[in-house]
């Protein structure tokens, strides 16, 4: 399929009508925080409706990512008490990125003009949602929520996050600094996003690559209202690896370069050994041998690991399996 021609065929959405907004909220074991966050989101959405900034048909779409607690029961209860709430339940825990994507595609199917994705803990500031809608009305197709500081992070998390953003940019991946998955997307952007079929989703890299007009709003991240973080260090590292390997083959180039350097070092050691033998200093220390073995062995294993990451991802892509399966969908 000629993707570029298809994208050009998507008509720009007019800005002269009141848009229908879907707030997409991925949830995984969020029973402790949902009663509070749902009320805050509902108040925020109703305020936008009252000011005439979004349509009365706007909805809050919860995505239950295979939760093991009472998250879905709470979502169903919210839907039964107020139709501003709706949602889908995934048949299995698919991970945060796929849950966000599932919610965005559901918003697209519901006919939403704009969607805003935000985590259920509401550490992202709902107070800037109105500003996002205003920037959409001014012509932006994608509006990023960008943190203006990292005061709530630990020193380790702050330093590693900044290092990661710098690394991604050096590897050629277009990411928005200090922005995660709190963003507004217009219908054209959602249509374009729906054409990305890879199994290894990294929305923080895909959305900037769409190429539409963008804008930003800035906010201070809050403390989590209740419950525990669903993004421990292991998941953060996995997301970082996905981000690098989904958008760049530069690590393979780096490993090739390191391999060439290792070969050059081996040649130097060979010359040194020959010279030592020729000058009568043929007794070589076992330490140099062991260092060489460990160095080369480590390089080989690391290179195989990096290559394996790409081979594994290619393997997953060729399967063509669905990224998620919806178990239940509320109207």
Based on the model shown, name its key terms:
331 residues; alpha/beta; Spore Coat Polysaccharide Biosynthesis Protein SpsA, Chain A; 2 domains; 11 helices; 8 strands; disordered N terminus
Mean pLDDT: 82
Could you say how many structural domains there are in total?
Answer: 2
Instruction: Outline the biggest β-sheet.
Output: 8 strands, mixed
Gyration radius over CA: 25 Å
CATH superfamily of the largest domain: Spore Coat Polysaccharide Biosynthesis Protein SpsA, Chain A
According to CATH, the fold-level topology of the largest domain is: Spore Coat Polysaccharide Biosynthesis Protein SpsA, Chain A
- Determine the structural class based on helices, strands and strand pairing: alpha/beta
Identify the overall geometry.
elongated
Task: Bin the strand percentage.
Answer: 5-15%
Low-confidence stretches: 1-6
For the biggest β-sheet, the strand order reads 7-5-6-4-1-2-3-8
Q: Tally the helices: what do you get? A: 11
Please give the CATH architecture of the largest domain: Alpha-Beta Complex
Number of strands: 8
Order of helices and strands: HEHEHEHEHEHEHHEHHHE
| Helical percentage | 40-55%
Terminal-residue CA separation = 33 Å
Which CATH C-level class of the largest domain is it?
Alpha Beta
């Amino acid at each position: 399929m000629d993707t570029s021609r298809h994208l050009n065929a998507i008509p720009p959405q007019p800005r002269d009508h009141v848009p229908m907004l879907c707030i997409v909220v991925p949830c995984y074991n969020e029973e402790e925080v949902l009663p509070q966050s749902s009320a805050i989101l509902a108040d925020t959405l109703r305020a936008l409706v009252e000011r005439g900034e979004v349509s009365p048909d706007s909805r809050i779409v919860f995505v239950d990512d295979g939760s093991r607690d009472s998250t879905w029961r709470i979502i169903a209860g919210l839907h039964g008490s107020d139709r501003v709430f709706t949602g889908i339940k995934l048949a299995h825990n698919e991970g945060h990125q796929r849950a966000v994507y599932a919610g965005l595609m559901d918003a697209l199917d519901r006919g939403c003009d704009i969607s805003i994705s935000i985590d259920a803990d509401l550490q992202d500031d709902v107070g800037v949602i109105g500003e996002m809608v205003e920037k959409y009305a001014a012509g932006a197709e994608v509006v990023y929520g960008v943190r203006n500081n990292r005061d709530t992070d630990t020193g380790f998390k702050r330093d590693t996050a900044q290092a990661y953003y710098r690394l991604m940019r050096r590897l050629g991946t277009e990411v928005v600094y200090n922005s995660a998955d709190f963003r507004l997307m217009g219908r054209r952007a959602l249509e374009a996003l729906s054409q990305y079929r890879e199994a290894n989703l990294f929305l923080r890299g895909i959305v900037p690559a769409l190429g539409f007009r963008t804008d930003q709003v800035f906010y201070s991240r809050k403390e989590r209202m209740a419950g525990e973080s669903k993004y421990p260090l292991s998941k953060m590292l996995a997301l970082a690896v996905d981000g690098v390997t989904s958008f760049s083959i530069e690590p393979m180039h780096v490993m090739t370069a390191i391999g060439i350097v290792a070969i050059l070092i081996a040649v130097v050691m060979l010359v040194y050994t020959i010279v030592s033998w020729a000058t009568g200093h043929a007794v070589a220390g076992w330490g140099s041998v062991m260092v060489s073995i460990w160095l080369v062995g480590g390089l080989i294993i690391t290179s195989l690991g990096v290559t394996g990451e790409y081979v594994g991802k290619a393997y997953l892509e060729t399967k063509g399996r669905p990224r998620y399966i919806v178990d239940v969908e509320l109207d």
